[in-house]
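Usage

Read records sequentially. Each one opens with the input sequence:
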Amino acid sequence: MAGWTMHRLVRAGARSDPGRFMLRLARDLGDLGLIDRGMTLAAHVFTSIIPILIVAGALRASLDARSGPIFAEHLGLDAATAEILEKSLPGGAQELRATGVIGLVVLVIAATSFARALERSIRMIWRTSTVSVKFAWRWLAALIAVVVGLALVVATRIVVHGEGLIPVAEFLAEVVLWGALWWIASWIVINRGVSLRELLPGAVLAGIGFAVAGLFARVLLPPLLADSAARFGVLGMAFTYIGWLLVLSCLLLVASTAGRIVHLTRTGRAWRRSVGARPSA
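and closes with the structure output:
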């Protein structure tokens, strides 16, 4: 009975363009393994952020003694949660000197792990084959693009603020910045195997999705982090934050998959099952 009902729903959906689009999206996301691959991306983001926080915390005393509190305030955390965040980070440049070259190598490897995971995800979505390791420079280039994009988003939130139409301008700026970030980063990690024109629809969807998610994060994330910090300390904050990273990773994967379907629809190939290479997880 359930199978018959589902069959009728599929047939009904296939009669309209939006229905066919949603059916193709559901099929491709099923092939991708949305939650599993999203969790992989989220974990790589998390393990990439921690070394960067260590270095940033080691340098903050010599650069700006108030950088930690300002960072916590920017996240919208209360005093108690900000104090827990402060205690979780190193207190001066001495730790950075102690890590030396080994720490720098670990930082680079950990940071590029996200770029490699992003490459595997984008290649699986677009069914492109892997390239030689001699093109490994693209991982660093993609990482630089992501870091620059994130810096611009944060700078926009700091500079563009106010009342009236200012929040609208800030939202539109974030849409553009997030879209450009994932547009360029995706193009780099797959070694320009897919054209910028083909990647544009997915980048636009990702930009809108991340900007909307940012609005929800400013309201929901601070109290969730504060509650987790009060109950479980730094570990609770880590679990909460990685859960939010999972949401963002899934948003990126859905946007990229939907963008590919938009491209296939425009070229009349949306209902042909792709047979290209499928990179391993």
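Summary fields computed downstream for this record:
- The chain has ten helices and no strands.
- Residues 65 and 233 are 23 Å apart (CA to CA).
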